[in-house]
Amino acid sequence: xxxxxxxxxxxxxxxxxxxxxxxxxxxxxxxxxxxxxxxxxxxxxxxxxxxxxxxxxxxxxxxxxxxxxxxxxxxxxxxxxxxxxxxxxxxxxxxxxxxxxxxxxxxxxxxxxxxxxxxxxxxxxxxxxxxxxxxxxxxxxxxxxxxxxxxxxxxxxxxxxxxxxxxxxxxxxxxxxxxxxxxxxxxxxxxxxxxxxxxxxxxxxxxxxxxxxxxxxxxxxxxxxxxxxxxxxxxxxxxxxx
Length: 242
Hints:
- This protein is α/β, with parallel strands linked by helices.
- It has a single domain (2-235), classed as Rossmann fold (3-Layer(aba) Sandwich), CATH 3.40.50.300.
- The chain contains nine helices and ten strands.
- The protein has helices at residues 41-48, 70-76, 84-87, 93-103, 108-117, 133-144, 163-178, 214-217, 230-235, and strands spanning 2-10, 17-25, 30-34, 56-61, 64-66, 77-80, 151-155, 182-187, 199-204, 207-212.
- The strands form two sheets. It has a six-stranded mixed β-sheet, sandwiched between helices. Strands 2-1-4-5 form a four-stranded antiparallel β-sheet, with helices on one face.
- β7, α7 and β8 (182-187) form a beta-alpha-beta unit.
- α6 (133-144) runs parallel beside α7.
- The relative contact order is 0.18.
- The model has no long low-confidence stretch (mean pLDDT 91).
């Protein structure tokens, strides 16, 4: 589903970016992309969803490639931003979902279906400024799925969530996975998500320094500014988070 080959990217006017990144990700799998703040996680997500183009190398999303097909990639890849305020445009829950559906030439039915799926139907007429952090996160997830994407990217989705909100996010990620959606979740906090991941990658100073199943990757990741889950530090296992 996702293939990245010798990816290089530099932010205009700076020397920071990504260098020599290569990996592949199977359809329907969940990749946890870990790293300290400023390591390059968000930049990689922007490249994967077609918001930016590589300076060198190539990205493939199914049969689409970048550079060259970014517009089509954006139609196939959903992105949930770290800050819900950047993504939510409507005045109410319903208006936000319908705006997304109309902008993507989809019928209103898809917006109502997603409201049902994400438990937002009772909040349909609720002003967005009255939503809790978890409700805003659900709305952003729902709006990102209006196009029924093949890939869903999430940038620091744990940000601002309380314990019930984190539990709810885990349920949504699990449900997406059961439905065959390929997911990439960028985070600096592995604790609530490590047990869900098929693959764990660590990005450090713009380079991909670790890749594999969580048990193969977790030893020594403190060197890259990432704290292993408590269960790994205590017992050497990735326990189910509760």
